[in-house]
Amino acid sequence: MSQNSTTSQHEPFDHPFTGDEFGQPIIRLDGVSKQFGDHEVLRDISLTIRAGDTVCLIGESGCGKSVTMKLMASLLKPTSGHVLWDEVPVEQRTDEELVRDRLRFGYLFQGAALFDSMNVFENVAFGLRQNTKMSEPYMRDIVAQRLMDVGLTPATASKMPSELSGGMKKRVGLARTLALMPDIILYDEPTTGLDPIMIDVINNLILKTRKRRPVTSVIVTHEMTTVRKVADHVVMFYPLSRLQPGESQIVFEGTPDEAFESSDPRVWQFVYGEAGERMQEFAA
Amino acid sequence: MNRNCYRSDLTFFGSLRTIRADVRDVCLVRITDREVMPTATVPPRASIVHVIGQSTIGFVTTVGDLVLFTLDMLRWLMRGLPRRSVVLQNMYEVGVRSIPVVLITGLFIGMVLAIQGYAQFALLQMETRLGAVINMALVAELGPTLAATMLAGRVGSAMAAELGTMRVTEQIDALRALGANPIQYLVVPRFLACFLLIPMLTAIADGIGVIGGWLLSTQSLGIDSTYYWHHSTAYVTAWDVWTGLLKSMFFGAAISMIACYQGFHCGSGAEGVGRAATSAFVLSFVAILVLDFFLGMFLN
Lengths: 284, 300
Hints:
The complex is a heterodimer of chains A (about 280) and B (about 300). Chain A has helices at about 65-70, 95-100, 120-130, 135-150, 165-180, 195-210, 225-230, 255-260, 265-270, 280-284; strands at about 25-35, 40-50, 55-60, 80-85, 90, 105-110, 185-190, 215-220, 235, 250-255. With about 280 residues, chain A is an alpha/beta fold. In chain A, α3 packs across α4, α3 packs parallel to α5 (about 165-180) and α4 (about 135-150) packs across α5. A two-stranded antiparallel ribbon of chain B has the order 1-2.
């Protein structure tokens, strides 16, 4: 693999954050609310993600975790409030700056969101083609390397997404996310719909990625094994419809151990998977 | 707005002796407490004024959104062309793969015009002028509108469905996350393909329609070929051909923008995608006819 054969517009392999930046706020949501038409999903959320941390966002389906992640990556605009990257509001960036800075984020989508019309190679190489001018042989090396990183053989490269299983799609999605060597990786339900072995494979890949490079990770998950295994911090969201007026939508922030020892019934019911009095809602 | 109804006033004082005991037990409802019965929200019945108002607001909003979407596309087009491979792929899909259907429709429309026109012209003993009417109708109106309709049906719906599926499966978000602008990557190439290739499809429809009309008129209906062409060339001018091709460019632009807009704004799930594909065709067809009318007025 010869790195000399490349000339890049934006070098994807430099590491914009250094050792000094560890622990500094890298993403901050400041009083963010999000509404879709009349439907309010998030209300006045304030949350800080620090460089080098692995944060799991947990909570019931529909409570706004994925929307929060999309707001973090500026794939959605907040109805009110501010999203700050490195303490600079996103809206202060020009279009070009936004595109450039967004490349620091890798986003693993819930259904992998592989491009149907492209094979695995083209999917993984997409970000490299779009943002660099690297030579074809070098790009092939990188794609093969990323596929191997996620436990796939280079022979997978010629397959179309429709030929892959759910677990393979997630791994190709992860390879595509890692191709641009992001500093911040956002995983949207990376283990949903997978068998227990594949869940552990994905958990280990998340750990391996973090071990190899000092990335910041935000993971939306319902899987408590993922929380126990990879999270430094846990943030629990609660649906707006169940909150009392004035109550914060973030009902828990702390370490995984604290989450599992929480006295708040909303938290322990969720982390231990117990419906409790919620069953009454379905008995009616 | 949650409206409550109070049942306390509901007291049945009818002549209970006259009705059956079991029915009487049901009817004997006397609620002294003001029992609150929350009921489902019943929307007020919309009057014709409401309907017209809502439709007007919806129409103006959609047109405004479509105009902003088009301006956004033009802004990204000015910033630079997308990758050649992406544009060529779209051109192949829009242009090359539309040729068979355009050939078939063009040929048959030319022949149908000959059959329909012949009976009338024969009554006036002006059969040799049939060519002028067929060719004028083809190059000025039917060629451009038919090619555009075929494009809207074959390509416009497919575009809306493809982009709608990409939206529903978060592929459009994935493009943005990977440093590509979805408008530049998805909309600009489709616009270019439709805008640049529809005149060629129109020319093909015109040409094959003229040949179809001529073949049927001279070989089956017995019209003399020399007079057929003589009257045609005297009546149909180059301006008529050019205006037809020019109109088709507006149709192509409208089809691509409506289809992409519908795809980008489609609802969730399979139903949303299906609805976007249908709307793309219906709206494109309406746009073709409306544009044809106004361009016809302007160019003539």
